[in-house]
Amino acid sequence: MTQIIIVGGFIVAAIINLLPLSGLIGAPPLEKAYGVSVQGPDMAVLLRHRAVLFGVVGGLLLAGAFVPSLRAIGFAAGMVSMVSFLIFRALEGDGNEALARVAMIDYVGIVVLGIAGAVAYAQSS
Questions:
Q1: CB-based contacts of 16, cutoff 8 Å, min separation 6
Q2: 103-125: per-residue pLDDT in tens?
Q3: Cβ–Cβ < 8 Å for 87, 63
Q4: How many domains is the chain built from?
């Protein structure tokens, strides 16, 4: 049962972090996901690069689901990514409805990954 919690939690967190990879194809998916207008190549480059970084975090989480030695780094990367978004959102103001949806998904990811990480840690101790 503990393996199901660990693997399942890491996979759910991985999926959450891999979803923004759709932004690699260009501005339309980014505009839809974040409820913003991507005006000009500067913003497109930054948001597409952000999608790549999410891919890295999601990849680490997915690998951590199946490779126990990668769980700590995957956990740390996933938590830093999701928690920092929520902190920046709180500091800057709530933003639009799309960002509220992203925040809610991150809250779920934090809880699920937190449980999986705690179980994995307890199992390794």
A1: 58, 82, 105, 106, 108, 109
A2: 999 999 999 999 999 999 999 88
A3: no
A4: 1
